[in-house]
Design goal:
The protein is α+β, with helices and mostly antiparallel strands and 141 residues long. It contains three helices and five strands; from the N terminus they run H-H-H-E-E-E-E-E. Helices cover 36% and strands 29% of the residues. It has a five-stranded antiparallel sheet. A hairpin with a 7-residue loop joins strand 4 and strand 5. Helix 2 crosses helix 3. The longest helix is centred in the middle third of the chain and has 26 residues. The chain is globular and about 55 Å long. The protein starts with 10 loop residues before the first helix and ends in a 7-residue tail after the last strand.
Amino acid sequence: MGIFGKRGGNREQRAADIAGQVASGKGFYGRATRAFLGQEDFARVQESLGAYRSGQDVRQLLAAGAPTVPAVVVSLTDTGGLVNHDPVVDLVLRPTGTTAPVTLRTVVSKLRIPRPGDQVLLIADPSRPGGYLYAGDGVNP
């Protein structure tokens, strides 16, 4: 039990709860972050946390056996953001079997940054019908 009440969950769950408060701008951590950073920088924090969450969703979907869709990288643009020292990038991809490009903002490993022409994997986004999540190159889990 903590000084001010019962502490539930483990450290990872507590950190995820705080990150959720920061991203939503609610609770003590979210309001304090918004007040100290200002609107423009707070929006960048929200984008980075959204990219981090999409990575978590991808790992869960891959573990559940969700089907992947191969795609070819058309272009890659650095956003200047970092999550755990890995870059947040805007990817323009062309899924196999379609001609329409797909644009994603996601975190990529700085050790395995995709280049134009590389083949990567996508997973259908369950929260956005018709949307995709970046699933890496299929070599590293």
